[in-house]
User: Fold this.
Amino acid sequence: MNIREEIKSSILKSIKALDYKGDFSVKVLRTQKSSLGDYVIGVAMEIGKKEDKDPMEIAEKIKDNIKGKYFEKIEVINPGFINFFISKEYYLKEITEALKKGNKFGQFPKKKEKIQIEFISANPVGPLTPSQGREGVFGDVLSNVFKKYGFNVKKSYHLDDQGKSILALGHSVLKDDESEYAGDYIDKLHKSIKSKDPYVVGKKAAKIIMQKIIKKTIKRLKIKFDEWPTESVVSKAKEVDKAIHLLREEGLIYEQEGEEWFMSTAMGDERDRMIIKSDGKIRPLLNDIAYHKYKFEKKKFDRIIDIKPIDYSSDLPGLIAGVEAMLHINKLQAVLLQFVVLVEEGKTVRMSKKGGEFIVLDDLLDELSVDVIRFFFLMKSADTYLNFDLDLAKDLSENNPVFYVQNAYAKISYILKSFKNILGIRKIKNIELLNSKREIELIKQILRFSEIIEDTVNDYEVQRIPQYAINLVNYFYKFYSHCYVSNKNKERREAQLNLISMTKAVLKNTLDLMGISA
Assistant:
């Protein structure tokens, strides 16, 4: 049992002993200031609201019933928070265990659950945009985190090779009256594809775009997919017919003016969804429902996480309702990402260039290192517009957070190299000598790595990973500037070099999670 589980268990036992009735949520959160302890719980305010009693009084009662080996001090602060101060003994014990694991620290035991994380999945009608690049990095890093947590994860790019967009692409390449897409790549395809059938042209063009543009961009972004499933594979399996049959059997389809509608409100949706037009054409939603049914039943995934752009928000409730109508309850989750906005000299950069072409992801990759792009794409929460600061991204100094973290890794490596002939730092001993404020702070930050993995698996907030890397470096520099590695005291030097070695291992693991070079 880790310390957060121990705190939660202690709180729940105390609540039970006090005979407070109800299913109370006990969230063990990190405090924002070390003066307020290490962890904070606000359940007393929830109980106070339900019981119509003073939360401070309830918090004091809960506190008085708590016992724990490593709880150095427990305080109640206004308006009813319970703050836990964890003992140095606990942190020294845990850092000793972490040192034994070395580079494997933060790797959780393997789990049976099979998870697919699908991202980008852009229609093969043109180059990827910066916003699609953000989706790619987000999905890639979230996949890395889930693997670190022990899950069997498959990264997937779903390729729509037969939809409306393929026909529109064909018309665009033919440059006829139904053309929708333009650009240099369309001009080149127009010259190289000779067929006059727009659908045939679209299929050929999509294949070329996928192989020669999109996949190359994905490779440049350092993303490797495990699967590239196509819409045509799902069609051949007749999954759409099976989905319609199941919906009809369940009485969830009705007709209206020649159209067929899915009664998704019966599954908790805000409105019903049209799935078959009056001319018999299938709507994309039905294809998506059938495709997810196929993934759960044929591919045997236990959970699917879709990474989508924010403009999919109106369609998402219908998809979730459809998947649940297929009897796969609470198995589909989604993250919707806001768009990327490029900013230069404090002003928004117009995404369109001369000639009507748009700035694409390859333009960023031509100008910036992939490490910088990946780090910057991760820095904001999914529901926040990502203002990509081009001036900061081009800055080669430590003002750029990527270089700040990478330079710290280089410095740590240099320190360890400097001492390698003096001391074999593989010896894990004298850890009890790490008792100064700065040393304990760095230990706490190192040990937080496992919590970062666990929390991100639970809420998909990957922006905490680059922030963790920056915080770890901050604490390392505070430690190193205040606790000079001594050449005189061999025992203390051993302990400090072990701590620096563990900092290096965790920082490397954090960079690996982000797909950023050390």
In short: Residues 101 and 107 are 9 Å apart (CA to CA). The radius of gyration is 27 Å.
